[in-house]
Amino acid sequence: MDTEKKSKAKKPVTQDEILLASLKLFSEKGYFNTSLTEIKDAVGIKTTSGIYQHFKNKQAIAEVLFGNIIDSLSISIDDIRRRNRKASEQLREFVDLLFRLTEEAPEIVHFLIIVNIKEILPEHKPLLETAPFNKISRIIQNGIKDGEIRSIDPLLAYSYFFGIISHTLRLVLSGDLPKEADSYQSQAWLSAWSSIAKK
User: Fold this and answer.
1) What's the CA gap between 81 and 132, in Å, rounded?
2) Residue 199 within a domain
3) Where are the beta strands (DSSP E) in the chain?
4) What pLDDT does 11 receive?
5) What is the pTM of this model?
6) Is 140 part of any domain?
7) What is the pLDDT of residues 122-131, one digit of tens each?
């Protein structure tokens, strides 16, 4: 029994454990209000040296977190594009994914749409220049070309559409909208799509 306790106590912390604890804390308290000591406590280790074995500082944790979320979104969008031909179908499925994530992994959506990445990672490219958002922009451009989406500037179409979606998700995450995300999903989709759809 004592040997079992000792081996459990000495078990090294993994990078994923640090990332998960950090994501939760960044979402709850904000990046700038979270210390490495709090991350260490959340992971359940005695000193911050366990964190330094994987990351040189808190910013490095945020960078890996952001990269992982962006990579995962990019893969999901590729899958969505393979399954659906029309822009409306692709955008609808992406919205479904965002609402599902808001229910199942709210910290991820919080980190993605509420945290100001440029404040944390000033050297990082803006969110709109990352791979998943370039792919969404291409979906919108194809929708314009195919006559599904009004002939407007693709960046404006993106802003109209995702302005409605992201604002709805922000209100859900902040608790200003009292019900769960899926209660607002179809209304948000209809409003977002009608803002760019060709009549």
Assistant:
1) 12
2) no
3) none
4) 66
5) 0.86
6) yes
7) 888 777 789 9
